[in-house]
Design goal:
This protein has one domain: Rossmann fold (3-Layer(aba) Sandwich). It has 7 helices and 5 strands; from the N terminus they run βαβααβαβαβαα. The longest helix is centred in the C-terminal third of the chain and has 25 residues. The protein is globular and about 50 Å long.
Length: 185
């Protein structure tokens, strides 16, 4: 099984990437699946102007990103909350793709600098993903006070507690990925 982690923030001084690094390390260390990170900061996509499948000359980066999403058995989105919503960088790639998202198991981890862990963003992101017919995993992984909870390499301050929560969260994603695989036969 292959999990693609989308690190959604492109902001200077971002902290949500710490959680993406944690999940990559956690999944690899526990040999749960193959895993890679699609860091939207590295892509620097232009502002959305049309869905990929309707673009006359799509950028090679957009085509490569679409292929990564399509090839993944499941996607884990790590997104910060900005003023109650998710960043434009994530909205850009959510809207860029269509068929690649259909019935794709997608888990969402939200982060914030404050005490609520990005919980306000989950509904708007889930709604957008539902409109694209993704299968959003019911488990959530909110991270409050992210800069205090993880170091820059993705190491959690509360290793045991964080890994216990992460196991339940990733197990739910893996279950959905396996269910989809069985239904696709």
């Amino acid at each position: 099984m292959n999990i693609l982690i989308i690190s959604a923030s492109v902001r200077t001084g971002r902290n949500s990437n710490r959680v993406a690094l944690f999940f990559r390390n956690f999944i690899e260390t526990n040999k749960l699946a193959s895993v890679e990170i699609a860091d939207l900061q590295q892509y620097q996509f232009p502002v959305f102007d049309e869905r990929l499948k309707f673009q006359k000359n799509p950028s090679p980066e957009a085509v490569a990103f679409a292929a990564r999403v399509k090839a993944a058995d499941g996607v884990l989105i790590v997104t910060p909350e900005y003023n109650g919503g998710y960043p434009a960088s994530l909205k850009n790639v959510v809207d860029l793709l269509t068929d690649e998202w259909k019935r794709k198991p997608v888990a969402i981890s939200t982060v914030s600098a404050g005490g609520f862990g990005g919980m306000q963003v989950i509904i708007s992101l889930q709604y957008s993903m539902w409109k694209l017919q993704t299968w959003t995993v019911p488990a959530m992984f909110p991270v409050p006070k992210v800069a205090e909870s993880f170091d820059e390499q993705g190491n959690p301050v509360d290793k045991a507690g964080t890994e216990k929560r992460a196991k339940a969260f990733i197990d739910e994603l893996l279950w959905c990925m396996e269910a989809k695989k069985r239904m696709s036969v």
